[in-house]
Design a protein that fits this description.
The protein is an alpha/beta fold and about 475 residues long. It has three domains: about 130 residues, Rossmann fold (3-Layer(aba) Sandwich), CATH 3.40.50; about 130 residues, no CATH class; about 190 residues, no CATH class. Helices cover about 50% and strands about 10% of the residues. The strands form four sheets. A five-stranded mixed sheet has the order 1-3-2-4-5. Helix 1 runs antiparallel to helix 2 and helix 2 crosses helix 3. The relative contact order is 0.08. The N terminus is likely disordered.
Length: about 475
């Protein structure tokens, strides 16, 4: 292995004296906050329900027992899953999903426990449902409050979640320091050692001797600095050098990490995946699990069916106006790409004099002469999209998702924009995150399309049923959803 660019040892003294908070303290605080939130909510909901329904405080000891049982299951399960590990508590994004998943399982376990012990009969079903519904937001608020405190402490240097020593090439260490902010990541960089430079034509024995000398100095310095983790900033392809380094650093009471290659900066969700004895680096995941897909599909089918029934009178009126305004069919069908880039025919109210669906489909502009008088009004208020409820019911589309484009536009932007095809990882939608943020209408520049893709990918990577409900609400009431209508 030829190692380029090396420098001398650069290290700094331990600044642990400034660290007023410990990792154990922050973990214990979250544990206690979860237990307190569940127990207090159980008692509060039980008392409030009995006051409202029976004009009495109710069996307070029973509410306390339910809260304690639920808190025990939830907190112990969180402890086993590693949710209270300090490094996991400075990332606000995944907290809600993990809490909802575990709280739902805890509630199911609570019901099973009550059924098995024959004690569930003494509890009101109404109070139990309120307990489930109200405890989740309480857990979210208490968890996020502690997370925010941990992040503030980390940013100010009061909290160190991991003491790190770097060893590797100068380029690798420099890239690590430039890309990862130690404070925001909860790290304290105690020191580093750059691998000594060698000639490109250096024989194997020479680079091995040089590497061993560097390792001797690095291990001596790391032992004095007492890091929690040693991060090897070496090319992954240098497997022999990595093996040697791991073997030598094993003498230290510290974790050993192989630092990230540049490709990992493009994939924020990359993680190790295990299937039996097979271990791989998983760069991406499916946007929605099977359970989430089933939940989204059930919501789409139910909501679209109800909306179709409610909007039938409006659709009849619109159909009549279209026929009176211009010659041609009421509905306009055009081929679009859906999930996994499978083509389907989208249904819309006709808003133009033409019905293009070929290799070239000019985008409609604000003053496009092809748009009819009624069509301009329909497009202004998004009413031309209503027939797509049929697409949702049959499963070609979802209520919320990236807007599908004509096949010719897909081919064009797919060639020009690298991330464009990622939009097809989920079903297209009648409305989407980009649209409620004002990114609709004609995309006459590549910058406009890139901005729309940015919002579409944000939706895909952060999907939740609550986000879908938020987008549907904004589609109706937000002025931005009607901006730039063509």
């Amino acid at each position: 292995m030829n190692i380029q660019q090396g420098h001398s040892l650069v290290s700094r003294a331990d600044t642990g004296g400034l660290l007023a908070l410990s990792r154990g303290l922050i973990s214990a605080t979250v544990f206690a906050a979860d237990v307190a939130a569940i127990v207090v909510t159980s008692c509060a909901i039980g008392i409030a329900y009995h006051l409202a329904m029976h004009d009495s405080l109710g069996p307070i000891d029973a509410f306390l027992k339910v809260g304690t049982a639920a808190a025990s299951v939830f907190a112990i399960a969180s402890l086993v899953r590693g949710d209270y590990a300090a490094p996991n508590l400075i990332a606000a994004r995944p907290q809600a999903a993990r809490i909802l998943q575990l709280w739902s399982l805890t509630f199911v376990a609570l019901l099973i426990l009550g059924f098995v012990t024959k004690s569930i009969e003494i509890y009101s079903r109404g109070s139990m449902l309120l307990f489930y519904a109200c405890t989740f937001p309480v857990l979210i608020v208490s968890r996020l409050a502690v997370v925010q405190l941990a992040m503030l402490a980390s940013h100010s240097g009061l909290l160190c979640l991991r003491r790190v020593f770097l060893f590797g090439t100068a380029a690798g260490i420099r890239a690590f320091v430039e890309h990862y902010d130690a404070h925001t990541s909860g790290m304290l960089l105690t020191g580093c050692r750059f691998v000594s430079p060698l000639r490109r034509d250096a024989p194997p024995q020479e680079w091995q001797e040089s590497l061993q000398a560097d390792l001797d100095a690095a291990i001596e310095g790391a032992r004095r600095l007492a890091p929690d983790a040693v991060v090897l900033m070496l090319p992954w392809s240098a497997s022999e050098a990595v093996d040697i380094c791991v073997d030598r650093f094993m003498v230290l009471p510290a974790e050993i990490h192989l630092g990230p290659e540049r490709i990992l900066q493009q994939f924020q969700d990359a993680r190790l995946s295990r299937l039996g004895d097979f271990v791989s680096l998983q760069l991406t995941r499916v946007p929605l699990s099977r359970l989430e897909l089933a939940l989204k599909r059930a919501f789409d089918a139910l909501a679209a069916s109800l909306a179709l029934v409610a909007l039938t009178p409006l659709m009849i009126a619109i159909a009549a106006l279209i026929k009176l305004d211009s010659a041609g069919p009421v509905f306009f069908l055009q081929r679009r790409y859906g999930f996994n880039q499978q083509p389907f025919r989208i249904v819309k109210f006709r808003t133009m004099h033409t019905l293009e669906d070929g290799e070239v489909v000019p985008q409609a502009g604000r003053e496009d002469p092809r748009i009819t008088r009624v069509g301009r009004w329909l497009r202004r208020w998004n009413l031309d999209e209503i027939p797509q409820l049929f697409n949702v019911i049959i499963g070609d589309m979802s209520l919320v998702g990236p807007r599908p484009h004509a096949l010719s536009h897909d081919h064009d932007y797919g060639r020009r924009i690298a991330r464009y095809a990622r939009r097809h990882k989920v079903k297209p939608g009648i409305t989407g995150w980009a649209q409620v943020n004002g990114l609709r209408g004609e995309t006459d520049t590549q910058e406009k399309m890139e901005q729309r893709i940015k919002y579409d990918l944000h939706y895909i990577e952060n999907w939740s049923l609550l986000l879908d409900l938020k987008i549907l609400l904004w589609t109706v009431i937000s002025p931005a959803a009607y901006r730039n209508a063509g």
